[in-house]
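Here comes an entry:

___
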Amino acid sequence: DRGRVRCPGPRCGGVRVAGGSVDRVSCCGGRRFTSEPHHDQGRSTRVDPGFGWDRPSGRAVRFTLGCGTDFRVSDPLRAAAHAHPDAPALDDGRRVWTYAELDAAVGRMARRLAPLGAGPGSTVALVAHPSPLSVQAVWAVPRTGSVLAPLNPRLGAATMERALEAIGPDLILSTEHDVSDMALEADWITTLDDLPRPAGGEGGADATPEPESRPFALLWTSGTSGDPSAVPILASALEASARACVGRLGLTGEDRWYASLSLGHVGGLALVHRAAYAGCLLLVRGQFSAEVLAELIERDGLTHTSLVPTMLARLLDSRKGESVPSTLRCLLIGGAATDGALVTRVVEKGYPVALTYGLTEACSQVATAPPDLVAEKSGTSGLPIDGLELRIQKDGEIYVRGDTVSPGVADEEGWLATGDLGRLDGDGHLWITGRISDRIVTGGATVHPRSVEVVLEALPGVSAAAVVGIPDDVWGEAVVALIVLDPAGEVDPKALMAQARERLSASELPRRIELADSLPLTANGKTDRDSVRALFLGLSHA
């Protein structure tokens, strides 16, 4: 029964509901509890978060076991295998694993990793695209007591070397398929395809995980400061993020989510937890492909996926003129500033788009606007997710506080300075206006590049824009813009400048406009402003 969660404790006498209704919960005391809060005959209870499923809504909810048994949310896969073992969990296009089968495979992998150096006190790097083996490793590594450190196989050699030096892994894992796609010596890597069986055989229990205060994962990120670093992610933060996303998007066990993002991206890692938490099916097809995504939408009943704007644009190019199936419920867009014109175009074509603002230090989503709100207010990131608070400083910087914020990155009151700029409208919806480090000071005036980009991208014939500041002897910094034109149109740069002059202030108006076939992007799909700046500086010295 997918609505039932069985308590593993030997003396449990009750369940206290703390945030929703559980359709049916069985305790070892033999009782069944529904939506009424419960204390076992007045006995004191320790607050240990666990979760179950509200069958009518399909949403995961939290509860407390009266016996104090810790039915840990740090391993929602194991809980999902208890709750609905026969439900489909993972699909790679060739095979479908049930939750029970996936949980068993993860247990076997954890036992095979332990003799190789995985265990309490160790850190294990995972350099692989989404696949059955890499998803199993996401769960198996923490079961050994190790800290997981997923990395994007597409990182450049220098960045990969810097990340590994900062993380200091005791073991590096990948797959045979991914080894050829990365800037690493193959001799350093243990492939998941042929892990040696432990000498004692496959039996035995998984290793005991480290305490909850120990990170579940370390994620390599450019960070709120702009200085790359390894950010610790707690299991409790992943659980809180999954719970909030399930509620905001209304995920159910019937949904099918395509894993399009790298596991080294916080959105990719959070998705693995989210799918298990919701009890839905995770579709893995390796590195992102717009053609694969289009096929999943058209033939496989895909309901959800997460995309950065570049991926979204590629999807549109691969599905020109085709209708949107009713089975598709949500394209969750985040990871970079989203082109307003692109969102408008996508919504007009009938795609259900949700816009989200998030960051690694807050374990992915901070605020999310579901499709109905995006259709009404294109450009907003919506309300903060459950469990998070937002505050806008006088200078416009966004501050975040709540359950998903990583340890060590917030001030004494728990507030995280994001480095991003935004505003809240009268309904409390968040609008992103830029990033502090991107601000341009020209002639004493402050210019926010994203505000200029939005105007430029709204001009006829413009597909994308990147605005940066470059040194200028007179103005301090000069505003310049790199423009990508719509392939279907022809626009003269002088005509663009004339149109821009009508819509921008004198300080915002680009002093130079250059055309390009595409914008340079980082490995996570964000505009690489350093590369744009270097391009203009190179042209200046040519």
Observations:
- Residues 1-73 have pLDDT under 50 and may be disordered.
- DSSP finds 14 helices and 30 strands in the chain.
- The first helix runs from residue 76 to 83.
